[in-house]
Amino acid sequence: MKMPQAGLEWRDVRAEMIARGGGDAAWRDGRTAVYVFNAGEDVSHVQHEAYGLYMAENGLGPLAFPSLAQMEKEVIGMGLDLLHGPDGATGAMTSGGTDSITMAIKTARDYARANGTPREGANIVLAQSAHLAFDKAAHLMDIAIRRVPLKTDGSYEADPAAMGEACDASTIMMVGSAPSFPHGIIDPIAALGDVAAKKNVWLHVDACVGGYFAPFARMNGVPVPPFDFEVPQVHSMSADLHKYGYCAKGASTVLFRSEEIYQYMPFDMAGWSGAPMKTPTLAGTRPGGAISAAWAVMNTLGVAGYREKQGLVCETRQRIEEGVKRIGFEILGNPMLGLVAFRHPNHHAFAIYGEIYRRGWFTSVTKEPPSLHLMLSPKHADVVDDYLADLEASVATVAGGLAGPKVEARYS
Question: From CA 211, how far away is CA 245, in angstroms rounded?
């Protein structure tokens, strides 16, 4: 495509953009259970307006835009308050979970170097279910990844004892998930903390999915185990605002137990002809809209609003669990939040996925073991019965040997 010689009318460009989206996943009507967190039109309205108010401002310049700096500080404060951050805890906003995880690893690496850990052979120990963002970040920094099999008791939890055995003098970080993406299971963070303390290893909790969900689920009576800075050995956490914080993309938080360890995250450089530059994260330009929208959504919803929406998601997950069990599926482990994975003992999950996809549902799959996977939002409360009806029909089609061509599914 070449740029048009004369600019087009916005109404025509807008119409074409809408038309191009006609074949995209239909997330607005609740038929998508991955990528998008649909908390309703009320939240969407706040996202749009608040993002637009600071769309041109740049978080790179706190002196130029002290409003953004203050909003970011307050977003971090709210996150730390929810996640039992002790006095002196701090953090920063990032563009997403991968960004937060990358910065946590960079911080742990530099902290380890400053405290005598050899530069050669650095490694991270994590469960098989931990997110691939850790592999991406480790690849960038030439750090080895040591993945450890999950417990064999059907819980789909990380195995603290086995992870401890995988640690050595060059281990810069252990990782627990709250919850893991593939299965929606909260790892035994307290037990991982005990192991990390014995091994004198930094413990990171990847709460990209659950960081802004689990505290409110606990307030609603869900028996969420200790998973955050309440566990003394937790040094850092990643928690996404644009997931169950229902904020505009891309917005996440990376949080640290103390200023002492946080100091290893920022970049402070001056070795060029321009002005010295200090940035808290890898990004230079930081979209002001992502910061302002996060601040606005968190303040607009408040504790009561989040409790209501997360309670609806938990209720929806329970309805899904009851329905899929009735159809013959088995739930993997004991999910407590908004993720759930389930498999059928007699039919391959990927064949069923193909059929549910053909019926207009864009969901997800888990590879180990082959399972269907849902990441639920408040909107899904409206479509549970429709989903279960189509799922039952899909199972019947597969059982009858009438399944259509294979559908490939890849997810980031």
Answer: 8
The sign of the dihedral angle between the CA atoms of 243, 245, 250, 251 is: negative
CA dist 302 → 195, 240, 246, 296, 379 (Å): 36, 17, 12, 10, 19
Place 410 in a pLDDT band, splitting at 50, 70 and 90.
low
Taking alpha carbons only, the member of 92, 61, 94 closest to residue 275 is: 61
Q: Inform me whether the pLDDT recorded for 408 exceeds 60.
A: no
* Angstrom distance (rounded) from CA 240 to CA 250: 9
How far is C-alpha 65 from the geometric centre of its chain's CA atoms?
28
Question: What are the structural domains, with CATH classification, of the chain?
Answer: 25-41+303-399 (3.90.1150.10), 47-298 (3.40.640.10)
| Per-residue pLDDT at 406 | 56
Q: Residue with structure tokens 């169950």?
A: 244
Distance CA 405, CA 412 (A): 23
Tokens 């040591």 found at:
146
Edge to edge, the sheet with strand 234-240 lists 90-94, 252-256, 234-240, 203-206, 171-177, 123-127, 144-148
The whole-model pTM stands at: 0.92
Which of 117, 58, 119, 130 is closest to 285 using CA atoms?
58
Assign residue 40 a region (left: φ > 0; alpha: ψ between -120 and 50; beta: otherwise).
Answer: left
pLDDT at 412: 38
Per the omega criterion (within 30 degrees of 0), is the bond before 369 cis?
Answer: yes
Per-residue pLDDT, 343: 96
Q: By CB neighbour count within 10 A (0-12 exposed, 13-18 middle, 19+ buried), where does 190 fall? A: middle
User: What is the rounded distance in angstroms from the CA atom of residue 246 to the CA atom of residue 261?
Assistant: 29
Distance CA 38, CA 29 (A): 9
- pLDDT per residue over 160-214, tens digit each? 999 999 999 999 999 999 999 999 999 999 999 999 999 999 999 999 999 999 9
Query: d(Cα 206, Cα 102) in Å, to the nearest integer?
Result: 11
SS3 371: strand
Residue 374 β-bridge partners: 340
Contact predicate 353/409, CB 8 Å: yes
Residues comprising the chain, all counted:
412
Alpha helices in 224-348 (DSSP H): 259-262, 288-327
